[in-house]
Design a protein that fits this description.
Blueprint lengths: L3 H4 L2 E3 L2 E3 L3 E3 L15 H12 L4 E8 L17 H15 L4 E7 L15 E2 L23 E2 L2 H20 L4 E8 L2 H6 L14 H4 L1 H13 L5 E10 L10 H13 L5 E5 L16 H9 L3 E4 L5 H9 L5 E4 L1 H5 L3 H6 L10 H4 L6 H6 L2
Parallel strand pairs: 3-4, 3-12, 4-5, 5-8, 6-7, 8-9, 9-10, 10-11, 11-12
Antiparallel strand pairs: 1-2
Helix pairs in contact: 2-3, 4-7, 8-9
């Protein structure tokens, strides 16, 4: 097994990563109640950089004091003093030669812990499937969202823009717009959560329109050196098996539009990144379709913690980087272990199921 592809440097826009392995964005709920980062968070992100990861993508960070917050104890970047505290994380990562992108998130219909408001907004007033996530302090059904107004859509775009500018101002290397997993941008893309009859609803071209507008306006608002990407998925945190009904034709429309939006990369998250995108016999993974139709660098996420899986998907040239979630949590020094042929740790589900223990492995094994 030739491991070298994992350790080759790679450039997205003007951001040069020292290797092709990144830490995936993972909800952690370890900020303060009012959305400020903590020393625990600084240690957490620093530990991945110290362990050798070339790129770290932060947990989803809320972007306004209205409807964007998703979970209790989620960090925000809506005030300048919040941004200044994030600079401590940026400096810690940069001190180890790592790069760091902030993931910007608007919860849309799936908010279950917003300190600013009790109601939720979505493309349409459609009841979300499933129940809130208990391990993030949720309980029972999601609230029925109201339909977002056109004026609120403008405000949301502006919030993404201003948050991206704040992230750039404190030294982040880029931002990732959260367009996946059932949150607001993905809710526009999803047929059953978008019943609009205007130019943002109906066919796939219309449903991707808001994502394209956000991507374009954010990209134009930041400096040319600052990297802007978007995370895309089919599945949601409350509907794990959802796939696009138009299959490859939908993928062609979506990724072609995003590829022309000003984005510098697309981050695809699937249950298993190498498997067929639509549960059919075609055996074409979504990362392959994203690469084919967007012509952008692609980050692949989905059970790639085994080195041979990561190597295979990089060597196939359908993805340019891999993002690890469980593998990174199990081994904050995954890079160094693989480089030195050391055995990898088994993932402990308690890290996810018990939010208090989210960084248990780091605290016990790396301090």
């Amino acid at each position: 097994m030739d491991k070298q592809v994992l350790f080759d440097s790679f450039k997205i826009n003007h951001t040069v990563m020292k290797n092709r392995v990144s830490v995936a964005p993972m909800t952690r709920i370890s900020a303060t109640k009012d959305g400020f980062i903590t020393e625990r968070m600084i240690d957490y992100y620093h530990s991945f950089a110290k362990g050798g990861f070339g790129l770290i993508i932060t947990e989803g960070t809320y972007i306004d004091d209205k409807h964007s917050q998703t979970y209790q104890y989620q960090p925000g970047i809506i005030y300048d003093n919040q941004a200044q505290e994030w600079k401590k994380v940026v400096d810690a990562v940069h001190s180890e030669g790592g790069k760091i992108f902030m993931q910007l998130q608007h919860s849309g219909p799936l908010s279950q812990g917003n300190r600013f408001t009790k109601d939720t907004i979505a493309p349409s007033s459609a009841q979300p499937k499933g129940e809130q996530l208990r391990f993030y302090f949720g309980e029972g059904a999601y609230k029925l969202p109201r339909e977002i107004t056109r004026n609120e859509m403008k405000q949301v775009k502006n919030s993404f823009i201003e948050s991206a500018k704040r992230a750039e101002s404190v030294g982040f290397d880029g931002v990732e717009l959260h367009g996946a997993n059932g949150y607001l941008l993905d809710a526009f893309l999803t047929e059953y959560t978008n019943n609009r009859t205007d130019e943002y609803g109906g066919n796939t071209e219309n449903r991707v329109r808001f994502l394209v507008e956000v991507a374009k306006e954010v990209s134009q608002a930041v400096s040319p050196d600052f990297t802007v990407g978007m995370r895309i998925s089919q599945s949601k945190v409350n509907d794990y098996t959802y796939t696009w009904s138009g299959k490859e034709e939908d993928a062609k429309i979506i990724f072609n539009a995003l590829g022309k939006s000003g984005l510098h990369y697309i981050h695809i998250t699937e249950f298993k990144a190498w498997q067929s995108a639509f549960n059919d016999d075609e055996q074409v993974p979504l990362v392959s379709l994203a690469k084919r139709y967007s012509q952008l660098p692609i980050i692949a996420n989905g059970q790639l913690e085994k080195p041979e899986r990561a190597i295979e998907i990089l060597n196939s040239e359908i993805a340019d980087l891999v993002a690890l979630g469980k593998g990174a949590l199990a081994d904050h020094d995954w890079i160094k272990k693989v480089q030195n042929d050391k055995p990898l740790s088994e993932f402990d589900a308690e890290i996810v199921l018990n939010p208090v223990a989210t960084i248990k492995n780091f605290e016990l094994n790396n301090l």
